[in-house]
Amino acid sequence: MRRSSDAAVPSGGLSLTGLKPRQNKAFWNCQLEAFVPLHWTTVEPCKQHRYGQNHPPLIFMCGSNRVVPYAPKHAPTLAWLYLWMASAALPHRVISLLNRATGKERGRLLYISRVIVNNYRCLKTADVELNPGLNIIVGNNECGKSTLLEAIDLALTCQLNGRPIQTELHPHLFNSEAVADYINALIAKSPIAPPAILIELYFEDHSALAKLKGINNTVKADLPGVSLAIEFNPEYGDELANYVANPLLIRTLPIEYYKVSWRSFAENPIATARSIPIKPSFIDASTIRNNAAASRYVVDLMKDSLSKDQKVDLALSYRMMKDAFLDNDKVRGVNEALARKKGDITEKSLSVSLDTTSRASWEVGVIPHLDDVPLMLVGKGEQNSIKIKLALESSADSHLILIEEAENHLSFSNLNTLINHIAERRGTRQLVITTHSSFVLNKLGVDSVILFHRGRAITLKELKKDTQDYFMRLPGHDTLRLILSERAILVEGPSDELIVQAAYRKLHGKMPLEAGVDVISVNSLAFKRFLEIAVLLDLTVAVVTDNDADIAAVARKYQDYMSKSNIRIHYDADEKCRTLEPQLLKVNGRPAIERVLGRTFASDTDLLDHMQSNKADTALKFFTTQEAWTVPGYILDAVG
Amino acid sequence: MTYTQNNTKEIERKFYGHTTAIPSRIEIMTWFTFLLRELARPYRRVMHDERIEGFRWAEGRSVPYVPETNTAAHYFAGGEFIYSDKVSKFICECERLTGGAVMRRLAQRFDHVFVDEIQDMAGYDLDVLELILKAGIKLSLVGDHRQATLRTNYSKKNSAYAGTNIIKKFHEWHNSGLATLSYEQHTHRCNQDIADLGDSFFPNEPRTRSLNDSVTGHDGVFIVPPSQVVTYVDRFKPQVLRLDKRTPCDGFPAMNFGESKGLTFDRVLIFPHGLGKKWLGTGNLIHVEKLLPKMYVGVTRARFSLAFVLDGDASIPHAQTYSQ
């Protein structure tokens, strides 16, 4: 029995909706080349048409077995193909094939759109939306950027450090806060369920991923995806009860009683990483484990960039080399000598051979060399950039590249080369990169940045439209300073910045930056924009502002932030002293300031005039002076 | 896909006959694997809170007195094992509650779905097939309703289309334009005499034309008197078949009709059971009306000769009495 729609011919030909017009010439050519072999393998009764020796054969076919010949004089542009598709009355099946090969489906990439992590290492909860292309994850040390990359890799491969997660389970994979909550609940005799790790990767809805599609995920979205859960195995209920009998003795979780389940959102088990069409290359530059692992890792990456034939050739030559080893006269002589010792060592005959078990394939015996130096002996920075470049060269078209701190072990000029390479060769692949370097950020583009802080991630898209525009225009540097600092003090201008720095040094005996406190000078209109990010990321921020002789206006301006525990607004309530300079005069008096400035003035008004017309100079004098001076109360509060 | 694991293996073997490996874009699975993995699990949470770990096989009807409103107990044993006779019903409910998400996913998942031994499908399976058809997914169903010896379930639903009557459902689909029904009316296996005997079980169905016209010197349908059985077996080495193990076969190694489904032998010798003897003697189908599919399978296994052990005359078409 067969459905009859097969033969139905649509009247309007092909709909071209969903195909964005692109002017790029290279796009048309490269898409067409990619299209040909795919088409070739999917369409059965077809005729082949050659249009020149240097091109692959181009095949067209129609349901009615009418073959449309291609004019060999012209180059095969995708534009031509679209025209042909639109004008010919083709059966549904052909259109869907062509559409898939060239159009919507083909243009759409396989990518991870969202990551949700619970209780994995330092990420108690994390929910991150990713861009289809470039993602630059920026955040403080220890904020969990690397953990996020590790989690993505883990959920795609079910491997940790290159080994199956089942053998790599250890108690510290679990978020320490969640474990502490669990133990405290036990101590308080109000037990809760043992903590579980969950990593969910949501993919773009694409028919190539339909096998993984379903609604079995935290947010109940009908999307393809995978989830990896490390959870308590209820079959060990009795053992767990014994283990936690005295909660005061417990420090870690009994991971022996935990199981790993790796499933699609359709809730079917995932047999191997091959079942997930998105294949990651995880380049972890910050920690190179050991030489053997590093080299195997590079071989793995190298393998991806080799064609099937090349791989077979390598495997074959390796095996032939082994055979040749045994045929060697000297080796044969050794084996004959060994054979004569039969009985001395064992009753069986002894001989030497090369390892021919499946483990001993070429991947194990082959070591990558750089300029004839084995890779493990090359500097770490060079190793890193090789890994990154290899990953970028690999051929799979649904490739995800995860790069951890590309700037590690690299000199500035090498970093520059590498980042240029990444920007050029990334193509359409999804790339997630973590960085500390504002250079990397600026080079790759601030618009792809994801600000990450304690599991919260925001993109500039989440900010208000005008705030977003503001930061898009700003060089990446200032935004980055705010995100990377443990604590920030926002001030109104360079003179305020110097006074606040000096005040901090007076109070703590060291410069604020040494303590991770960044004093950032911000245009007074931009305060609220920075505070918006601070609220989203839960950053600790103090604002030092002039009262501008209108306390009510200041209170109005910051009313949204007054109640936030992480944000403090500091200003003086005395409307008569509207800016920094009168404030300094008020608390120090004229003689003290005259000593700091090293000159005298006829009156307070003269002094104030001088200070206000030489703001920066005055501030610098306060910053460098050995004389004693008093810090205005509201500034002291801010640095305290 | 197909109902039994044996038939699934058979399909895989056929593929290996054509090619060195099954292409990755072709997936072969049993009907129940398909139901569980591709249809029931992905959207189960609109019906049920826990993952469906697997099946609980229902021999007849599972928990007939638990109402639908008690979802967990109606569909599941122990909360996580779905009753095999309810899985298709569960899928239909998921499809309804998600507003068609189950079939939308299936349409993305497969370009073409093939089901073999379609006559084994029963109950809500037919509704699932209808959903697939209505979703516009290309679906090819192959089978022989005359060989309806097995059933995926014994649900009350669609019992009017159970067993051989499944053909009525296909006619309905054909008439409403949902599908086109076409008969394959020839056999490469049986010669015309044997095919005619098979057809005689279903007088209302189209006749089968044999494409096997080879002549071996002993061709067609034979009656062997019990006294001649030993020499007959000695001379022709037939495969001995029987209805089931309760039928005595004089100690010859025998195979049940049901087991022989899908198999081919050059020569077959059948030891008929009690009612089978009555049918042979009178030619009246009333004696075997409950066993028509099994009888049909049994008599249509042979290429060249089909013989019945019977003391006396037979009134079935083309029967010749064997004598040395």
Describe the structure.
The complex is a heterodimer of chains A (640) and B (324). With 640 residues, chain A is an alpha/beta fold. Among the domains of chain A are: 8-107, no CATH class; 112-130 and 153-278, no CATH class; 485-640, no CATH class. Helices cover 41% and strands 17% of the residues of chain A. In chain A, a hairpin with a 2-residue loop joins strand 13 (369-370) and strand 14 (373-374). The termini of chain A are far apart. Residues 1-77, 86-95 and 101-107 of chain A have low confidence and may be disordered. With 324 residues, chain B is α/β, with parallel strands linked by helices. Chain B is built from eleven helices and 13 strands. Classes of the chains: A alpha/beta (640), B alpha/beta (324). Chains A and B meet through strand 9 of A and helix 5 and strand 5 of B. Chain A: It holds the Pfam family OLD-like_TOPRIM.
Structural shape of chain A:
elongated
Distance between the termini of chain B: 47 Å
> What is the number of helices of chain A?
25
Task: Report the portion of residues of chain A in β strands.
Answer: 15-25%
CATH class of the largest domain in chain B: Alpha Beta
What strand order characterises the main sheet of chain B? Answer: 10-9-11-12-8-13
**How does CATH name the architecture of the largest domain in chain B?**
3-Layer(aba) Sandwich
Task: Compute the CA-based radius of gyration of chain B.
Answer: 22 Å
Largest sheet report of chain A: 6 strands, antiparallel
CATH superfamily of the largest domain in chain B: P-loop containing nucleotide triphosphate hydrolases
Strand and helix layout:
The complex is a heterodimer of chains A (640) and B (324).
Chain A: H1 25-42, E1 47-49, E2 58-60, H2 78-87, H3 92-102, H4 104-107, E3 112-120, E4 123-129, E5 134-138, H5 145-157, E6 159-160, E7 163-164, H6 165-168, H7 176-187, E8 197-203, E9 213-214, E10 223-232, H8 237-243, E11 258-264, E12 279-284, H9 291-305, H10 308-327, H11 329-340, H12 362-365, E13 369-370, E14 373-374, H13 380-393, E15 399-404, H14 412-425, E16 430-435, H15 438-444, E17 449-453, E18 456-459, H16 465-473, H17 476-484, E19 487-491, H18 494-508, E20 517-521, H19 527-537, E21 540-544, H20 551-557, H21 559-562, E22 567-570, H22 580-597, H23 604-613, H24 615-624, H25 633-639
Parallel strand pairs in A: 5-16, 5-17, 12-15, 15-16, 19-20, 19-21, 21-22
Antiparallel strand pairs in A: 1-2, 3-4, 3-8, 6-7, 8-10, 9-10, 10-11, 13-14, 17-18
Helix pairs in contact in A: 1-3, 9-13, 13-14, 18-24, 18-25, 22-23
Chain B: H1 5-18, H2 31-40, E1 54-56, H3 71-75, E2 76-77, E3 81-83, H4 87-97, H5 101-109, E4 112-115, H6 124-134, E5 138-141, H7 166-175, E6 186-187, H8 192-199, E7 209-210, E8 220-224, H9 229-236, E9 239-242, E10 254-256, E11 265-270, H10 274-282, H11 292-299, E12 302-309, E13 319-321
Parallel strand pairs in B: 1-3, 4-5, 6-7, 8-12, 8-13, 9-10, 9-11, 11-12
Antiparallel strand pairs in B: 2-3
